[in-house]
Amino acid sequence: MNELIKRKDKAAPAEPSQTQDDIVYAHVFDAILEQRLAPGTKLSEEALGEIFGVSRTVIRRALLRLSHEGVVQLRPNRGAVVSSPNVDEARQILFTRRIIEKAITELAVDNRNSEQLRVLRQMVEDEHQCFSRGDRGTGIRLSGEFHLQLARMAANQPMLNFQRSLISQTSLIIAQFEAGGKSHCSYDEHMELIAAIEAGDKARALKLMDDHLKHVEDKLNLDGEAATDDLHAVFSHLLDKKPLKVKRSKLAED
Ligand SMILES: [Zn+2]
């Protein structure tokens, strides 16, 4: 397997069956979730093709998929950019997230088992360690992964898909509007939530989730500054690697 597709952590290991666009998609998705890609960043097909060593067709497919999740905007004749939700859109996304998280929390309580709870606790511990050693990007992504894992516990695929999109859009909102330096999720609150789920205390779990999301929203600040818009800087860890050599997608290349 090529070096490029060995992910730097255990979040979503590359599978042999992954296509090139899966891999490009995953890298860009992670960069957005880790807030290394700022809202409004132009996603040049040419630059990304060069960085990942793949055709523009592959890049376009990955960007199309990201656009379906609302994290990338495709602009006719002007190319793709990382979405930059305005304040109204941000509030709408967060409102929807509260509703979905409520349903997820209820189902997670109903479906809880010791293995899933163990995975959740491990995620929160990893998240804590990342922030402790100053690895904010990975910590932020793990915060999002915690909420995705809850959605997996809910065992409802459409809800999981929707949650994935909402989490990445929330990450963009945080990148755009949060006062710098803070995690958008508190791992203490995550731990409390796990305890309530484990105890089967649905009312408490729902209250904790609602408070948790409220805290995220309270941290929004319209003066927040974004990260970098330099694609080569964001993906610099890939640039010394060789081009992708994985199963090619069946669609025609250009
Ligand atoms: Zn959280």
From TrEMBL:
It comes from the Bacteria. Keywords: DNA-binding, Transcription, Transcription regulation. PROSITE patterns: HTH_GNTR. It holds the Pfam family GntR. Gene3D superfamilies: GntR ligand-binding domain-like, Winged helix-like DNA-binding domain superfamily/Winged helix DNA-binding domain. Residues 18-85 form the HTH gntR-type domain. The keyword Transcription applies. SMART domains: FCD, HTH_GNTR. SUPFAM superfamilies: GntR ligand-binding domain-like (SSF48008), Winged helix' DNA-binding domain (SSF46785). PANTHER family: HTH-TYPE TRANSCRIPTIONAL REPRESSOR NANR, TRANSCRIPTIONAL REGULATOR, GNTR FAMILY. This is GntR family transcriptional regulator.
